[in-house]
């Protein structure tokens, strides 16, 4: 048999991102029982097993019946309901093929020609967090995720599961016969498959149970900032667990480009040293787990650091290796997508709502430089950024479920007069289902466009309140000295009873959290910085106020109905 490297490339624009790993399996003449850890992207059997030395491939079809005794591979016949089989196209029994694709986390029997030498089969594919549902009260053809030179024997491995402890295990010997092994001395080999009896229901994958919130991938997508990886010691002995980040292999041509490894931080909670903070995940984390204890690893994606050059793609992919002192080893794939609005004011298009905390005001009779106030003023600020990067300051916004034509969608409405025009898809006794945000410190009715300076990362705008505006603080409808009317008839010019007020405001974004904001999601779903306003018209000189502002991403809806 020649050395045959199978690397699975798929030139397909619709293929999904994957975290690439190579697994090397050694195929011997005759029968081989393998446990495949990776799922090749192009997983057709004819592609995976194209080596002419491979005569047939068999996968146990456990849906049909339990296995109460182990049969040697030489006695297997194609067409049996408990087996899926694949033969090369030139094989006379190829018409019996019912195994068409290869999946990871599954065992296979591979028959090679007897006249070939042992040779490696290198398979590159994507990994997932291992899951397994065992066929109860039956032998199962399965393998385990362990290190290459794991010192773990079957008795130690299976002792952690009541359904497997003390149960018989069969391994394929060099002559192609299944032999029951001494579980107390036989070590578990990576990439090998065994017949293992399961007494009762079981989802056992090893002494270390790794979970990713019910999923098989830690996928941050382009929305999530935080995920949890759970590692539980289901054995009866204390285990030292090591967690190490790893880079993904390069993706194949035609697959989504790899922009880089996912920049991650982990939550460090150290009550002894009173340290509670996010730390970059750069080296190996070590944690000791008592029997039954679970380690919850909180992971944060640092999306502001995902600034790959244009054309490098938006998908960041990497891996986390979880292993213990006994030789268990699991790879958890990590995926995150960077924002495509890196040159815009806000990292995401949509609705942002937050608060401004003003705690500095200039002296009316002294310096124009703001100084600290005895107590702060807090108010709400609402900002929307559309898909073109245009940023608008809103006085109010209603996020509601509405029917537009024949479809029902979430919409953002900035003009209350438009709400009745959208037939609500659902109603309560109080009206349409939705949420309204408003700010009492702004009196304009139309959204105000903000200008963004990318070099300084500052948003600015000027809000003008006319001297005759009904919200002007100098005007009073029923007071003769403040109604801007001469003898209640002729309108007076500005500057007689009322004055035009201009508010020039700016928001300078900060790369680090402000106002006690959490680091989790900062620069991604949380932004903020220094808020400033210059007020003209209230006094004979400019009044300056200053404070901090924190905005939180609320909705990805990019269209603003006004």
Précis, in short:
The protein has 562 residues and is mainly beta. It contains 2 helices and 39 strands.
Structure, described:
With 562 residues, this protein is mainly beta. It folds into 3 domains: 4-198, no CATH class; 208-337, Immunoglobulins (Immunoglobulin-like, Sandwich); 350-395 and 439-561, no CATH class. It contains 2 helices and 39 strands. The strands form 9 sheets. Strands 23-24-25-32-33-36-37-38 form an 8-stranded antiparallel β-barrel. Strand 34 and strand 35 (490-491) form a beta hairpin. It starts with a strand and ends with a strand.
Radius of gyration: 33 Å
Tell me the fraction of residues in β-strands, as a range: 35-45%
| Broad shape | elongated
Mean pLDDT: 87
Task: Specify the helix fraction band.
Answer: under 10%
Through-space gap between termini: 71 Å
Largest sheet, strands/sense/barrel = 8 strands, antiparallel, barrel
Domain unit count: 3
The strand line-up of the biggest sheet is 23-24-25-32-33-36-37-38
Question: What are the salient characteristics of this protein?
Answer:
562 residues; Immunoglobulin-like; eight-stranded antiparallel β-barrel; six-stranded mixed beta sheet; 44% strand; elongated; disordered N terminus
Topology of this structure?
Blueprint: E1 4-7, E2 20-27, E3 30-36, H1 45-48, E4 54-60, E5 83-86, E6 106-112, E7 119-126, E8 138-142, H2 154-158, E9 169-172, E10 178-180, E11 194-198, E12 208-211, E13 218-221, E14 226-233, E15 239-247, E16 258-260, E17 264-270, E18 275-280, E19 285-289, E20 294-301, E21 315-324, E22 329-337, E23 350-361, E24 371-385, E25 391-394, E26 396-404, E27 407-413, E28 423-424, E29 427-428, E30 431-432, E31 434-438, E32 448-453, E33 458-465, E34 485-486, E35 490-491, E36 501-509, E37 526-536, E38 543-555, E39 560-561
Parallel strand pairs: 1-7, 13-22, 16-21, 27-39
Antiparallel strand pairs: 2-7, 3-6, 4-5, 4-6, 8-11, 9-10, 9-11, 12-14, 14-20, 15-19, 15-21, 17-18, 17-20, 21-22, 23-24, 23-38, 24-25, 25-32, 26-27, 26-28, 26-31, 29-30, 32-33, 33-36, 34-35, 36-37, 37-38
């Amino acid at each position: 048999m020649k050395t045959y490297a199978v690397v699975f490339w798929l030139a397909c624009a619709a293929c999904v991102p994957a975290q690439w790993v190579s697994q090397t399996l050694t195929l011997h003449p005759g029968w081989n029982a393998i446990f495949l850890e990776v799922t090749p992207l192009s997983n057709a059997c004819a592609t995976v097993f194209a080596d002419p030395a491979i005569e047939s491939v068999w996968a146990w079809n456990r849906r049909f019946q339990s296995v109460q005794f182990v049969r040697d591979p030489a006695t297997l016949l194609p067409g049996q309901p408990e087996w899926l089989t694949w033969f090369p196209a030139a094989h006379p029994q190829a018409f019996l093929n019912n195994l068409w694709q290869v999946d990871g986390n599954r065992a296979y029997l591979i028959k090679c020609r007897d006249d070939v030498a042992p040779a490696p089969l290198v398979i590159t594919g994507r990994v997932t967090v291992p899951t397994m549902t065992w066929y109860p009260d039956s032998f199962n053809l399965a393998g385990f995720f362990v290190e290459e030179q794991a010192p773990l024997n079957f008795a130690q491995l299976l002792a952690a599961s009541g359904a497997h402890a003390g149960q018989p295990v069969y391994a394929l010997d060099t002559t192609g016969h299944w032999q029951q092994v001494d579980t107390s001395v036989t070590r578990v080999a990576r990439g090998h498959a065994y017949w293992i009896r399961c007494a009762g229901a079981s989802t056992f994958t090893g002494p270390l149970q790794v979970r990713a919130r019910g999923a098989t991938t830690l996928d941050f997508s382009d929305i999530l900032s935080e995920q949890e990886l759970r590692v539980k010691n289901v054995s009866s002995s204390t285990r030292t667990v090591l967690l190490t980040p790893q880079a993904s292999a390069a993706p194949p041509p035609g697959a989504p480009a790899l922009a880089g490894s996912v920049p991650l931080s982990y939550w460090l909670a150290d009550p002894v040293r009173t340290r509670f903070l996010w730390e970059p995940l750069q080296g190996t984390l070590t944690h000791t787990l008592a029997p039954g204890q679970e380690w919850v690893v909180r992971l944060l994606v640092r999306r502001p650091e995902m600034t790959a050059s244009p054309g490098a793609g938006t998908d960041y992919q990497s891996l986390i290796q979880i292993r213990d002192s006994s030789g268990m080893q699991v790879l958890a794939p990590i995926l995150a997508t960077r924002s495509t609005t890196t040159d815009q004011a806000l990292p995401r298009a949509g609705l942002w709502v937050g608060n401004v905390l003003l705690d500095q005001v200039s002296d009316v009779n002294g310096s124009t430089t703001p100084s600290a106030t005895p107590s702060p003023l807090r108010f709400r600020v609402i900002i929307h950024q559309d898909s073109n990067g245009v940023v608008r300051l809103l006085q109010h916004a209603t996020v509601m479920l509405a029917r537009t034509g024949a479809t029902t969608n979430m919409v953002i409405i900035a003009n209350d007069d438009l709400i009745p025009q959208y037939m609500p898809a659902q109603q309560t006794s109080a009206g349409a289902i939705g949420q309204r945000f408003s700010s009492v410190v702004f009196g304009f009715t139309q959204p105000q466009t903000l200008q963004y300076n990318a070099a300084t990362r500052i948003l600015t705008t000027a809000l003008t309140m006319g001297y005759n505006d009904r919200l002007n603080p100098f005007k009073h409808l029923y007071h003769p000295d403040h109604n801007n009317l001469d003898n209640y008839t002729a309108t007076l010019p500005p500057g007689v009873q009322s004055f035009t007020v201009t508010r020039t405001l700016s928001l300078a974004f900060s790369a680090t959290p402000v106002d006690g904001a959490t680091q989790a999601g900062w620069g991604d779903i949380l932004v903020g910085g220094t808020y400033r306003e210059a007020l003209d018209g209230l006094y004979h000189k400019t009044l300056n106020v200053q404070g901090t502002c924190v905005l939180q991403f609320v909705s990805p809806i990019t269209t603003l109905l006004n």
